[in-house]
């Protein structure tokens, strides 16, 4: 009876086609699930989420990360500290997600709110990746511009599809969790496949060849925009656009001034910014034939793919065991473990693993899996906390703002790591002080424990915003056109993208 009621709620009569219990469940259940989502909403929406989250962000993002690392190292031949700075520069489009969100929400193009932006994002990705792959001797400045343009296309497509997800969550509230699961599942699976094959493709066709392959996911994004089922609004009042921007800005500023909001926001930024990122230094050492273990391109891809599995396991562990724990308690333990997990990198660089008889590859696989799992456990409560800080009426826009604050923290971490590598003179061939950079990073990772007083003691199931603040942010913005500003998925992008 319970199962029958669930099927009636979803409006899909599948009693006769219900898969049988057993091994075949693993195959047929996802198929029936996808079919149910496509029937309830529209096949173009489900395929759009799969393409943008799974193929473009998941698979394409993984391929782009590996190819960019090798492109900076082998083609542009920059130092690790420079590569770390450049990584932050190319991530700037993710720092301004509220701008993309507001544009798609309040400024339709030729009568459509979503389709033109998705098509534009796809073409931006195609042009930038094609230019990057075909140019033989591209100056670093132009290379950075093209990589930034590719990230802008990906960010615009991400925000636009997330807006569709949030919009459908209002019209189909019983399927809201299913849509979030669809986003997270497709992205995780795409990232796993992308990392798994990324190293192989880099070895076979080089990083520039992989950039050429990335035009395929971008082209599929264009196809999503063309096929997306969206109502046409021929008589949109463009004269009200400026007022809508002003109303949303006033509402967000009013909310940010609330102590219950700015204190957690400050913690989220500082906890990310002070945990300096020295990924490029470690990557150069991984692939060095003298000082490091000299991992091949395939080995690097396999290592990152195991990291994706660890991240997925972290999300599952949080969902089933930790999601009801108070924010402050959970963040204390995850931040502490985050700092301790960095000691695995220190053991590897000091070659202590070899003294214990543990091969480099096996040790790095364990290191990457554990680090990504703890990183996901640290990130999930911050995501949930962010949703609690969003005022009624502009939930999606304000959530995009919070994610942008976190992205600024990530970029600050990347630039701080580049500065640290430069100060310690860690270069393409010199890694004598890399161990010291790792030790300093690990110490900085635990410093946010002293900032936990900024986080409320409340549990994830209680409200954080006071009622008076919620009411004050709704003034002047609750119009038929702006009442449902919903832009960003609540579970997307572990690196705050």
UniProtKB/TrEMBL annotation:
The chain crosses the membrane at residues 43-64, 115-134, 182-204, 210-228, 266-287, 299-318, 330-350. It comes from the Eukaryota. It is found in: Membrane. InterPro entries: BT1, MFS_trans_sf. Its main location: membrane. It is a multi-pass membrane protein. Belongs to the major facilitator superfamily. Folate-biopterin transporter (TC 2.A.71) family. This is Folate-biopterin transporter 2.
